[in-house]
Amino acid sequence: MTRIATMTWRCCLLIALVALGAALPIAPALAAGESSRVPRPVINAGDGKACVADSAFMRINHMDLLKHQRDDTVHRGIRTAKFSLGGCVNCHASVKTGSVNAGPDDFCRSCHVYAGVTLDCFECHNAQAKAAPGKTTVAPASAHASGTAQGGQR
Amino acid sequence: MTTPDTVEAPPMDVPADADMPMDKNTSRRAFIGITASALAGVMIAPGIRLIEIAAAKPVEQAVSPAVRWGMLIDTAKCASGCTDCVTACNTENGLSGGVKETDSQWIRKLDIKNLQTGRIASMPMMCQHCADPPCVDVCPTGASFKRADGIVLVDSHICIGCRYCVVACPYKARSFVHEPISGQKPNVPRGKGCVEGCTLCVQRIDRDEKPACAEACKAAGHEAILFGDLNDPDSEIARRGAKVATQQVRGDLRLNTGVRYEGL
């Protein structure tokens, strides 16, 4: 009786170890979203290679940085480039549309639509990147059309 | 906002400006100018420098109340029919240039006629950047505000579009944006539902340039618009203000405008 009980216990332990060993490599894969059923936003960072701060920090705090900068700029005339909205736009504008808010995959719009958060900046600010010398400007009409399209999504 | 062909000249008892503040202390700008020119030894004659030293404010430094930006407009030099200042303003700030009631006009050209003498003078009219602005007094949200350096602005982030300021302004200098806007200038965000007006080209001032209208007037050869720091006794505008009779439009309201005129 004792021998059978020990065997059973050992078998259970073995099965548990095998199961744990199989589960471990799967866990990181799920975290990366490769085999996840959950849809993920397209993050097309444009030309942006190195952001002004760590990506994880920016994801959580970009709105606060922008709001702080906005008050400094409008009321106190401080126009530092580090956290300026224009800086974001110029760096992260998509290569395809030249904007951060024109197409569904554009940097700002992609995440904001995914998260269901209203993106008000570009009601007044221009989402088109400043045209580099020799680069043709994308017609403003397209930006306007996208603005109304986005308005409809809200 | 219609532009009348003629408007009645302001009351003749408008006091000449004796209140241009004159700071006896040597200002930072003057100090830098003197020091730099002394170091470089480029003073050709008193007051004339070979190289104009730009005393640009560092970008990370807030604007200071030691400066008060203003304009002195000489109506004798302002040509009737010339609208270069208006065009330059529209180009710089991305305005449509339309003159319908619903179009934004930050600067307008007026021909004013003295009904008693028949003299007609031409002048640009825009936000007068009052020291005591009525638009700021009436704003319920604090969106209409005066920056430390005397520029009266609207913070569109806070503006709810109630248009009290439009009504309060004696100069009809504020416009309301009725239609959605696209293709704004990167430094001049504008949007539907907000009130806006002349910013004295704040985006240019912050990089030590003059307002677009003043530049355009100079380029047209009129030089009717003199822009500068009213608080700096060595600035051209303060020196001229000390020499000639200047007037504030509706000076009787005692708003202490930053934009002043000669020969109204």
Secondary-structure topology with pairs:
The complex is a heterodimer of chains A (154) and B (264).
Chain A (H helix, E strand, L loop, with lengths): L1 H30 L23 H22 L8 H8 L14 H9 L5 H4 L15 H14 L1
Chain B lengths: L5 E3 L19 H13 L2 E3 L2 E2 L19 E6 L9 H10 L13 E7 L6 E7 L7 H5 L5 E3 L5 E3 L9 H5 L5 E3 L18 E3 L4 H4 L6 H8 L5 E5 L6 H8 L15 E4 L2
Helix pairs in contact in B: 2-6
Radius of gyration of chain A: 24 Å
Q: Which segments of chain A are poorly predicted (pLDDT under 50) over 5 or more consecutive residues?
A: 20-33, 134-154
Question: In what range is the share of β-strand residues of chain B?
Answer: 15-25%
Taken in chain order, the helices and strands of chain B follow as EHEEEHEEHEEHEEHHEHE
Helix percentage of chain B: 10-25%
Outline the low-pLDDT stretches of chain B.
1-5, 9-24, 35-44, 47-54
Helix share bin of chain A:
55-70%
Number of strands of chain A: 0
Strand content of chain A: under 5%
* Helix count, DSSP H or I runs of 4 or more residues of chain B: 7
User: Given the helix and strand composition of chain A, which structural class is it?
Assistant: mainly alpha
How many helices of chain A? 6
Quaternary? heterodimer
**Biggest sheet overview of chain B:** 3 strands, mixed
Q: What number is the mean pLDDT of chain B?
A: 86
Strand order of the largest sheet of chain B: 1-5-6
| Series of H and E elements of chain A | HHHHHH
